[in-house]
């Protein structure tokens, strides 16, 4: 009997202990010096003054002529204990030290409901302007509702409730986005973690990691506009873009080709093939890989890559194969 109890205890304990070990070994030191030639750099003759701040994982702030767009508000990289307890330190000091440019946000998009795409939403709220719009899956918006309800001005666009897919414009008309149905990649083998969707507004904001449900995953086609003219077209990809969505994007290409594709690259095999498929279909001018940094690491410590991304070798390989790929270092800035 004792033996059986011991076996059961081990069966429960071992996987629980394996999780932090796995998380601790996810990151790998990266020599930034070796990546110099892969840092994104737009030649000045083609630079229209659109500023891009990269905050790691999939978080981007894009600013044009004083108007700001935000994708996937997450930069604080909580540790394992914070993730399981759901108790996160106040991140307002961190946001001020790490992110200087965040004023006048008029459009926010969220690719899916996992914590590494949404957690720092409240830290950005003071910087939303009073006509700001947020576009996300209905589930992600419902999970953020305890915070959103404190900002009555924020206009919500749950994608599943749109009569048909269409462009959504920021009120300043500087940005417009087109949601693209995408598929979240499996985390371990073929298993996807934290699937499911919320159907009702939450009474309390999600805390521990398992309360952040995916909902549905979307990529966003983003046009930066100037008086109805498209200055640049960007695609912020999340997960994988299925064939039907690639077809739709190809159709939208008739108006303008994609200048810059942001593609998630956290696993060289899982992301690699799908990236090539998307690239061949869309032929963007340039590509920036994102989601390759170890987001379990304190943002004040030196950057690590997620081991499975093998980002330095992958960049080299993809460039040799003719793909115009680059990266941005978390908490850096560029302009296009
Ligand atoms: Zn996710």
What is the secondary structure topology, with strand pairs?
Elements: H1 2-26, E1 27-29, E2 51-54, E3 60-64, E4 67-71, H2 80-85, H3 92-98, E5 105-109, H4 115-118, H5 121-124, E6 128-136, H6 138-148, E7 155-158, E8 168-169, E9 175-182, E10 217-226, E11 229-236, H7 243-252, E12 260-264, H8 268-282, E13 286-290, E14 304-306, H9 311-320, E15 325-327, E16 332-335
The chain binds zinc ion (ZN).
Task: Give a short synopsis of this structure.
By secondary structure, this protein is α/β, with parallel strands linked by helices. Helices cover 27% and strands 25% of the residues. The protein is built from nine helices and 16 strands.
Shape: globular
What is the makeup of the main sheet?
7 strands, mixed
Helix and strand pattern: HEEEEHHEHHEHEEEEEHEHEEHEE
Strand composition percent:
15-25%
User: What structural category arises from helix and sheet content?
Assistant: alpha/beta
CATH fold descriptor: Metallo-beta-lactamase, Chain A
Assigned CATH architecture:
4-Layer Sandwich
User: Roughly what percent helix?
Assistant: 25-40%
Number of domains: 1
Ligand kinds: zinc ion
By DSSP, the count of extended strands is 16
Terminal residue distance = 68 Å
Low-pLDDT regions: none
Question: What is the CATH domain class?
Answer: Alpha Beta
Rg, alpha carbons:
20 Å
Count, helices: 9
So, the CATH homologous superfamily? Ribonuclease Z/Hydroxyacylglutathione hydrolase-like
The strand line-up of the biggest sheet is 7-6-5-4-3-2-16
Average of the residue pLDDT scores: 90
């Amino acid at each position: 009997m004792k033996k059986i109890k011991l076996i059961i205890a081990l069966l429960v304990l071992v996987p629980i202990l394996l999780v932090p070990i796995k998380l601790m070994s996810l990151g790998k030191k990266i020599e930034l010096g070796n990546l110099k030639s892969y840092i994104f750099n737009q030649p000045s003759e083609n630079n229209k003054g659109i500023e891009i701040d990269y905050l790691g994982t999939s978080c981007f702030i894009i600013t044009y002529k004083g108007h700001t767009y935000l994708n996937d508000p997450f930069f604080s990289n909580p540790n394992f204990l914070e993730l399981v307890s759901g108790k996160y330190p106040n991140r307002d000091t961190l946001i001020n030290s790490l992110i200087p440019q965040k004023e006048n946000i008029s459009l926010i998009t969220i690719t899916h409901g996992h914590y590494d795409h949404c957690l720092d939403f409240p830290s950005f709220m003071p910087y939303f302007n009073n006509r700001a719009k947020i576009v996300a899956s209905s589930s992600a918006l419902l999970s953020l509702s305890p915070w959103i309800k404190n900002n009555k001005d924020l206009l919500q666009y749950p994608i599943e409730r749109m009569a048909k897919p269409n462009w959504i414009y920021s009120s300043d008309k500087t940005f417009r986005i087109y949601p693209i149905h995408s598929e979240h990649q499996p985390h371990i083998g073929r298993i996807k973690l934290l699937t499911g969707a919320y159907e009702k507004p939450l009474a309390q904001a999600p805390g521990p990691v398992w309360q952040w449900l995916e909902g549905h995953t979307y990529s966003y086609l983003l046009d930066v506009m100037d008086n109805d003219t498209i200055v640049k077209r960007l695609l912020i990809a999340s997960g994988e873009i299925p064939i039907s969505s690639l077809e739709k994007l190809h159709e939208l290409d008739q108006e303008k080709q994609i200048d810059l594709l942001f593609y998630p690259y956290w696993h060289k095999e899982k992301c690699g093939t799908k990236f090539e498929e998307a690239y061949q279909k869309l032929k963007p001018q340039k590509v920036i890989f994102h989601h390759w940094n170890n987001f379990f690491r304190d943002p004040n410590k030196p950057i690590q890559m997620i081991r499975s991304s093998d980002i330095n070798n992958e960049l080299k390989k993809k460039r040799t194969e003719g793909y115009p790929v680059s990266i941005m270092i978390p908490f850096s800035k560029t302009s296009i």
